[in-house]
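ok trying again, last paste got cut off:
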Amino acid sequence: MSKKDEAKHRARYTREFKLSAVKLVKEQGYSIPEAAKSLGVDANCIRYWMQQLGDQAGSPVSGEAALRAEVQRLRKENARLVMEREILKKAATYFAKLQG
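nice, full thing came through this time. structure:
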């Protein structure tokens, strides 16, 4: 594939999308791989956007806003962990039936 063809297939993201991705990492505590996975982009894209747009995304929030963001993140993580636990319980029950 030529570079010209490759450029045609490369996804184009809006400036707002890029800033939102950077804010996920800087303000909401996501790791770069977590943010990339949740947005469906490559982690290297977010790294590049952080270099280019990091200052424009604003500084990390502090005070009450930071606490709210952390509570929101922890609630989301807790919901994921509860779901994983339920899946593991069902799997354990299934395999126990196979054994006995």
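cool. The mean pLDDT is 83. The first helix runs from residue 3 to 9.
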